[in-house]
Design goal:
- The protein is mostly helical.
- The chain has one domain.
- Helices cover about 75% and strands about 5% of the residues.
- The protein contains 19 helices and 2 strands.
- Strands 1-2 form a two-stranded antiparallel sheet.
- Strand 1 and strand 2 form a beta hairpin.
- Helix 1 runs antiparallel to helix 2, helix 3 packs antiparallel against helix 18 and helix 3 packs across helix 19.
- The radius of gyration is 21 Å and the shape is globular.
- It starts with a helix and ends with a helix.
């Protein structure tokens, strides 16, 4: 089958599945089978496309002409393939996890959950394969709207309030800043096509490059740069499978992915460095890295702590993009994948603790690791990967990011990365230590607590093992990140 059709199928299959899921409302086993089969097929499709890209195929499709220089188009390049590979494969793992979680936690409106989830994955893959900024923006907005029902899934006043914050910040930034940046880019360059080396050099006055770049950076609210980050902690009111994939992988990574695409294919790293477009923006990313880590340390609710950890880790990727050297962009691209596998494991563990022990606060987890050793071992592995220690995959992306900082001799930024890693230790490892070694509170017994349902354990074990495997074999993501950074 031609690669163009594989792209179309990978986007259409989740949409078709969402319709079938709605019609199988009264048949839970059928509904979940549709989800698993579709997720498996999508994983196979994105892996096949990755192999073909590595073999030299570069499929591109023009679907619809909108106006001169604006079209709806799909195109596979290394960075988009990396993002699609992460989202496509982790959907399958999360689907397995979701079955155990939704049943074990006796969640309502499960049909709506699975259907909305499938639509969100479709828009994520379409964004990954977008051939120009117009297509990416359209898919970005569809992703925001399709995940709103997932954020408000519980239907409580708190969920509805969180949903309003979610939509308000994400739509407000994208329409107020990003859309304006896209219109300016089109008027200046006459095109929105993603082009190696960028489309603005020689067409945009360098004096205005910093302003336009800022409109893009702050217009991508999903990247959670402060002060436009509050939607992410608010969205933690969603069920844990939503927090795990959409708010640790797909939604947030769509944000930093968009900033990387703008950096590489709209501005071009050479133009950014020559114009000094990112000189002051870098400090917003640096402050977000440190401040979000400090806030994470104050949170007793486990998902809230993980949410602020994600805010911090996303700014690692933004920082790599803003430094705009080949090695920093490579590190930022790799961090999309390395952080995804580790952070999804942490959220999986948080959900497992909720289902099995009905606990959400870290202060309630004394000795719980001895009752749930698989869950807490996976949590420990993922924590060490987030920190960036060997032998865990997170080490590689942080290593290349640090090299990018050293290359530009920005020693304050190197200190930011080092301090942040220390803060990672302080807000993650005590959770595992408390779980394994602390004594339960007086009168509290864990004799009745067992591990979460098997589908949940399988999923968190797979992603934890992947975080180890990516240290020894990072090649699939390393090669794609290196190709994207070099403009190949």
């Amino acid at each position: 089958m031609e690669s163009e059709w594989l792209i179309i199928l990978s986007i259409l299959l989740p949409l078709i599945a969402s319709v079938l899921i709605v019609f199988s409302d009264k048949h839970p086993n059928l509904r979940e089978s549709i989800t698993l089969v579709t997720a498996s097929l999508v994983a196979i499709l994105v892996c096949t496309l990755a192999f073909r890209l590595q073999a030299g195929e570069i499929p591109k499709m023009e679907l619809l002409d909108i106006a001169p220089g604006i079209s709806l188009s799909l195109y596979i390049e290394p960075l988009g393939m990396l993002f699609a590979l992460v989202a496509g494969t982790l959907w399958l793992v999360t689907s397995i996890y979701a079955i155990g979680y939704m049943r074990g936690h006796h969640e309502k409106n499960q049909t709506r959950f699975y259907a909305a989830f499938a639509i969100a994955i479709s828009s994520t893959l379409a964004a990954a394969f977008a051939g120009n900024m117009f297509t990416l923006f359209l898919c970005y907005e569809i992703l925001t709207i399709s995940t709103y029902p997932l954020v408000t899934h519980a239907g409580t006043p708190e969920a509805k309030r969180s949903g309003r914050i979610y939509l308000g910040i994400l739509l407000g930034t994208s329409i107020g800043f990003q859309l304006l940046a896209i219109l300016i880019t089109w008027s200046v360059a006459g095109t929105l096509d993603f082009t190696h080396g960028g489309i603005l050099a020689g067409k945009l006055d360098p004096a205005y490059a910093g302003i336009l770049y800022a409109l893009f950076v702050f217009g991508v609210g999903k990247a959670a740069i402060m002060p436009f980050h509050k939607w992410l902690p608010a969205a933690m009111v969603a069920p844990t499978p939503v927090s795990a994939l959409l708010h640790a992988v797909a939604v947030v990574k769509a944000g930093v992915f968009t900033i990387l695409k703008v950096t590489i294919y709209i501005f071009g790293s050479d133009f950014i460095l020559q114009a000094g477009a990112s000189d002051w923006l870098i400090w917003f990313a640096a402050v977000t890295i440190l401040l979000a880590s400090l806030i994470a340390m104050t949170k007793d609710n486990l998902k809230a702590r993980l949410a602020y950890s994600t805010v911090s880790q996303l700014s690692y990727i933004v920082l790599g993009a803003l430094i705009a050297t080949e090695i920093s962009i490579q590190g930022a691209s790799m961090h999309i994948a390395m952080h995804a596998f580790a952070k999804i494991t942490l959220f999986f563990a948080a959900g497992a603790i909720l289902v099995a022990a009905h606990k959400t606060d870290i202060s309630q987890m004394h000795g719980l690791g001895r009752a749930m050793p698989i869950t807490f071992t996976a949590f420990t592995v993922a924590s060490l990967s987030i920190i960036g220690l060997p032998p865990f995959g997170g080490m590689w992306s942080k290593w290349y990011l640090a090299q990018g900082v050293v290359q530009t001799e920005q020693w304050i930024l190197l200190a930011v990365l080092m301090i942040s890693s220390l803060l990672n230790i302080f807000y993650l490892l005590p959770i595992a230590i408390r779980g394994f070694f602390a004594k339960p509170h007086t009168g509290e017994q864990y004799t009745e607590i067992k591990e979460a349902p098997k589908p949940m354990l399988i999923a968190l074990s797979v992603t934890a093992l992947a975080s180890i495997a990516l240290f020894f074999y990072p090649d699939p993501f390393y090669n794609l990140a290196a190709s994207a950074a070099k403009g190949h």
